C-alpha cells in the first residue's frame, strides 16, 4: 500500500553535495560513518551467538553469563573456557549439519558468500576440536561434514584460510602466542588486501591479532606492506568530508535506506505542524536534510519555519557552518522559510535543555545517526544527554545504530562478532564496488581495519570502538521513560523504494525486530533504525 504522502526519492539522488547552489559556500561532501566507535558501560544482554542465531537460524540456545551491576544497565558476557569459541559457533552452525541431511549442501555452481564461508570454516573448526586434534595435524585431517563435498577449489581454500584464522584466535584467547603466531603466518601466505573479500577480511584480522599479541607480550608487531601505507584515519568516528563518503553512499544502500526512512518517520510524526524544529546530534554533511526540505516545501500545508539546530564541537564547527550555508541556499531555491543554528559545545554530552532554544508551538524531532555509541565509554555523559532531550519532550527521536555487540569484555566474543559483522560488510563491498576501487581500498584498509584492530586488540579505555544491539538500547532507553514507536507503512515503503535504486538490492535485507527496522546483508544484521518518544507521566 502506497502512503498518501512520502518523500519523493526520485529527486533526492539528484542532489549532489559537490554542486554549489552558492559559489561562495561550497558544500563539503558527506561523512561516512566507520563501524568502530564507543558507547557507555552499556553491557550487552545478548551474547554474540544468540544475537546472530535470531537472524540466521530460529533455534534457542542456552548461554551462561554473568551480569554485573553498572550505571548503564547492560550485561557483558565474561570470558569462558579455552573452548568457548567452539561453543559459540556450535549452535550457530547446527543448521549446516541439518541442511546436509536434507541434501541441501552448498552447490559449487552458486558462489558462497563471505559469511557462508565463515560458517563452514567454523563447522570444520568444531569438528577438529571435538576430535581433540592438535598442532599442524589439523591441516591434514579430512573434512567432517558432507556440507563440504560440493565446494569448489577456491571455496575450499577460503574455508581453510578462515579455519586457520579461527584456530589462531582461539590460541590467542588461551595466551598461547607462539602457536597462534604460526597459524597467523600460514594465513599470511594466502590472505592479502587486494584479493577476494575473504582474503581481505582475514588479512586485516590477522593484523589485529598480531597487534594484540604484541600488546600482550611486548614484542614488536611484524610490519606487512599494504596498499595504503601512509594513509591515516584522522577521525575514528567518521570518514570526514571527502569524496570517499560520496562513493560509498552511492554504491551501498545502507546509509540512504536509514536516512530516508528516518526522515519519513519524522514527517509522519510532525503531521501538519507549521513550525518544525529539527535537532541533529551530529550533523556531518547534512545531505539527508535536503530530502526533508524538499518534502516540506512540496507539502500542501504552509510551513512558517523549519529550524535546524546542529550540535558541533570546536574541531568541526567550520564544516558545520559550511553545511548550514549550503542547506540555507537549497531551502531558498525552494522558497522554504529555513533557519540553521549551530550549538557549539566542547562535548556533546554537556548540552543543557535551555541550549536547544525550543520555542512554544514548535514540533520538535531529534535525529541521532550512528552517534550514541560513541558515548558508550562515558555512560554518565550519555545519561546527561538523554535527560536534556527528555526535558524538551520531542515528538520523535530517530535513532540509527550499528546492530552488533562490540562491547563485550570477552576477547573471544568480540572476535566472533567482528568476524561475522565485517565479513558481511566486505561481502557487500565486493558486490557493489570493483576490487581496484580507490574508495573501497580506503574504507577497508583504513577505517574498517582500524575498527577491527581496536575491537580485537585493545582493552579498557583504549577500546573506543564499541556498539551494542537494539535489545540493549531498549533496556537503556527504558530507564528514561522512552517508548518505542512502530514505523509506519510509509517508512517501510520508503525504505524499500530507496533500496530498489541499487543494483545489489536483492542482497540487502530489510527485516523487523519488534518495532524497529533491521538493515542487513544476506541475512546478517548490520544496522537498525528505531523511533522513540517519552511516555506521558
Automatic annotation (TrEMBL):
Residues 457-533 are annotated as: SAW. Pfam families: GRAS. Residues 245-310 are annotated as: VHIID. It comes from the Eukaryota. Belongs to the GRAS family. It comes from Tagetes erecta. This is DELLA protein RGL1. Keywords: Transcription, Transcription regulation. Residues 322-354 are annotated as: Leucine repeat II (LRII).
Amino acid at each position: 500500500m502506497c502512503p498518501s504522502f512520502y518523500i519523493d526519492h526520485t529527486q533526492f539522488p539528484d542532489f549532489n553535495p559537490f554542486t554549489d547552489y552558492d559559489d561562495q559556500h561550497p558544500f563539503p561532501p558527506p561523512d561516512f560513518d566507520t563501524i568502530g566507535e564507543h558507547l557507555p558501560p552499556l553491557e550487552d544482554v545478548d551474547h554474540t551467538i544468540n544475537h546472530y542465531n535470531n537472524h540466521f537460524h530460529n533455534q534457542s540456545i542456552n548461554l551462561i553469563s554473568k551480569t554485573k551491576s553498572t550505571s548503564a544497565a547492560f550485561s557483558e558476557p565474561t570470558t569462558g573456557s579455552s573452548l568457548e569459541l567452539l561453543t559459540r559457533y556450535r549452535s550457530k552452525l547446527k543448521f549446516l549439519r541439518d541442511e546436509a541431511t536434507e541434501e541441501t549442501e552448498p552447490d559449487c555452481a552458486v558462489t558462497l558468500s563471505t559469511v557462508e564461508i565463515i560458517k563452514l570454516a567454523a563447522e570444520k573448526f568444531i569438528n577438529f576440536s571435538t576430535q581433540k586434534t592438535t598442532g599442524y595435524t589439523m591441516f591434514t585431517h579430512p573434512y567432517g561434514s558432507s556440507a563440504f563435498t560440493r565446494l569448489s577449489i577456491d571455496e575450499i581454500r577460503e574455508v581453510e584460510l578462515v579455519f586457520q584464522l579461527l584456530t589462531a584466535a582461539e590460541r590467542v584467547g588461551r595466551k598461547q602466542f607462539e602457536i597462534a603466531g604460526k597459524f597467523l603466518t600460514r594465513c599470511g601466505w594466502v590472505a592479502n588486501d587486494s584479493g577476494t573479500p575473504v582474503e581481505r577480511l582475514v588479512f586485516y584480522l590477522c593484523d589485529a591479532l598480531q597487534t594484540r599479541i604484541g600488546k600482550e607480550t611486548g614484542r614488536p608487531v611484524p610490519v606487512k606492506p599494504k596498499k595504503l601505507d601512509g594513509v591515516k584515519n584522522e577521525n575514528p568516528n567518521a570518514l570526514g568530508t571527502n569524496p570517499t563518503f560520496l562513493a560509498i553512499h552511492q554504491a551501498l544502500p545502507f546509509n540512504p535506506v536509514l536516512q530516508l526512512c528516518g526522515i519519513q518517520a519524522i514527517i509522519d510524526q510532525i503531521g501538519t505542524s507549521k513550525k518544525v524544529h529539527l535537532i541533529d546530534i551530529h550533523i556531518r554533511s547534512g545531505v539527508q536534510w535536503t530530502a526533508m526540505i524538499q518534502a516540506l516545501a512540496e507539502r500542501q500545508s504552509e510551513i512558517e519555519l523549519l529550524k535546524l539546530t546542529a550540535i558541533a564541537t570546536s574541531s568541526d564547527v567550520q564544516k558545520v557552518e559550511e553545511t548550514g550555508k549550503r542547506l540555507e541556499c537549497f531551502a531558498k531555491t525552494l522558497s522554504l522559510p529555513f533557519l540553521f543554528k549551530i550549538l557549539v559545545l566542547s562535548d556533546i554530552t554537556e548540552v543543557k535543555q535551555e541550549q536547544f532554544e525550543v520555542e512554544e508551538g514548535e514540533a520538535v524531532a531529534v535525529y541521532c545517526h550512528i552517534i550514541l555509541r560513541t558515548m558508550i565509554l562515558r555512560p554518565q555523559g550519555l545519561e546527561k544527554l538523554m535527560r536534556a532531550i527528555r526535558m524538551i519532550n520531542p515528538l520523535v527521536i530517530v535513532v540509527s545504530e550499528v546492530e552488533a555487540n562490540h562491547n563485550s569484555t570477552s576477547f573471544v566474543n568480540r572476535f566472533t562478532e567482528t568476524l561475522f559483522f565485517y565479513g558481511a560488510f566486505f561481502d557487500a563491498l565486493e558486490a557493489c564496488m570493483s576490487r581496484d576501487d580507490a574508495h573501497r581500498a580506503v574504507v577497508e584498509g583504513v577505517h574498517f581495519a582500524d575498527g577491527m584492530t581496536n575491537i580485537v586488540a585493545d582493552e579498557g579505555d583504549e577500546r573506543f570502538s564499541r556498539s551494542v544491539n537494539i535489545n540493549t538500547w531498549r533496556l537503556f532507553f527504558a530507564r528514561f521513560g522512552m517508548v518505542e514507536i512502530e514505523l509506519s507503512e510509509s517508512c517501510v515503503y520508503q525504505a524499500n523504494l530507496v533500496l530498489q535504486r541499487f543494483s545489489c538490492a536483492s542482497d540487502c535485507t530489510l527485516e523487523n525486530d519488534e518495532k524497529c527496522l533491521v538493515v542487513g546483508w544476506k541475512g546478517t544484521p548490520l544496522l537498525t533504525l528505531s523511533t522513540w518518544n517519552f511516555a506521558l507521566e
